[in-house]
Specification:
Length: about 375
């Protein structure tokens, strides 16, 4: 099989920016050739937040945002081509996750649905490159959650011949993947709850900062036990896998409800939110680790949360029997795992190979994911 180039595009729940990664695939190997991180325009991010929490003029805002995001995505792709002196014909396909504005998982009470925008027709038109998007809905049509999809790539990229590994992606939401040693069982993965979304939203509201760098503000506060108890009582946390979640369940209005009759300073709330994220991840890692009868564990972090040293320290205190590192230890920079995931999923689609793991999403069977928009 000849060498193929793909571009993966990702804009996460936090809507703080978009990632574009240029990946070379050769047989079962891959290489990150170049990557770009771009902040989203302020008005675009505001639209994403408003749409995620509902609001007025939704259809108009969605249509405008669909175009704005596509143009941002396409521009990032063009910049990658220019930097690498490549032509559109050199790229097999773009894999675009798009921007999630709704994710309602399937349950006994309702049919699941999900919506990601960032018009792939426009991306293909502007770049002249075949674009693959809408990766989640086929899995939902097959009875799955449509998320998380990253565990399939985690298996392809990080599976060991000897050692079971855990991968925690801490973006706006957080998800974990249990990757057993090759031939030693099924991959398990699911969302654990909020990653950075609540912490980012709280510090923006109180200090006009986009995020809590290294968790320093959280470290300056004290965990409020009553608030933490309220947070940990969210019904999502006790649901069995497969499960997925988003801003619809974990947002600032919900947080304000948990603060009713609780007196806590803003920095103490931030400390409590950090512990909430760490605890909800650690509890699930421990449960899976005990089920696998492992001794010393390995946990690899990716996503923005991998840079939050206070969060890493809190995880280490909750998981004393684990070696905790970022995915850089395995050869993949933690900031680029998600964008690389969608380059990989685009390749799976182009080669008519499945992109989901039924053991993760709950789908009836493996499915080829993505809709193809030819150049």
């Amino acid at each position: 099989m000849s060498r193929e180039l793909y571009i993966g595009l990702m804009s996460g729940t936090s809507a703080d920016g978009l990632d574009a990664a240029l990946i070379a695939f050769d047989e079962d190997h891959f290489e990150l050739l170049d990557c770009i991180e771009r902040p989203l325009p302020t008005h675009t991010k505001q639209y994403v937040t408003e749409l995620a929490l509902s609001g007025e003029h939704e259809i108009q805002k969605m249509a405008e945002l669909d175009i704005q995001l596509a143009e941002c995505f396409a521009s990032a792709c063009q910049e990658l081509l220019q930097r690498q002196q490549l032509e559109p014909k050199d790229i097999t396909a773009i894999g675009s996750h798009g921007q999630t504005i709704r994710h309602i998982p399937q349950s006994e009470a309702q049919t699941g649905y999900t919506l990601q925008i960032g018009d792939p027709s426009r991306i293909a038109e502007i770049t002249g490159i075949t674009t693959i998007a809408d990766f989640r809905r086929r899995d939902i049509a097959a009875g799955g959650q449509g998320a998380p999809l990253a565990p399939a790539f985690h298996q392809a990229a990080f599976q060991s011949l000897k050692q079971a590994r855990f991968v925690a992606n801490v973006g706006g939401m957080a998800n974990i993947t249990y990757v057993p040693a090759k031939g030693c069982g099924e991959v398990i993965g699911f969302d654990t709850g909020p990653g950075n979304a609540l912490m980012d939203g709280w510090i923006l509201q109180h200090r006009q900062e986009a995020y809590d760098k290294n968790g320093l503000w959280a470290e300056s506060g004290t965990v409020n036990k009553d608030l933490l108890t309220n947070l940990l009582s969210h019904p999502f946390l006790s649901l069995p896998a497969p499960k997925s979640t988003g801003r619809e369940a974990f947002n600032l209005p919900w947080l304000e409800q948990q603060l009713t009759n609780i007196t806590a300073s803003p920095k103490d709330v931030q400390a409590s939110l950090l512990t909430f994220t760490a605890q909800s991840i650690a509890d699930q890692v421990l449960a899976l680790h005990q089920a696998s009868k492992g001794e010393k564990g390995e946990l690899y972090l990716c996503g923005g949360g991998a840079h939050n040293q206070a969060l890493v320290k809190r995880l280490a205190s909750l998981l004393p029997n684990f070696h905790i590192n970022s995915t850089a230890k395995l050869g993949v920079h933690p900031d680029w795992v998600e964008a690389m995931t969608f380059a990989w999923l685009a390749r799976q689609c182009m080669h008519r190979l499945p992109g989901n793991l039924p053991s993760v999403t709950g789908a009836r069977d493996e499915r080829i994911l993505g809709a193809i928009y030819p150049a």
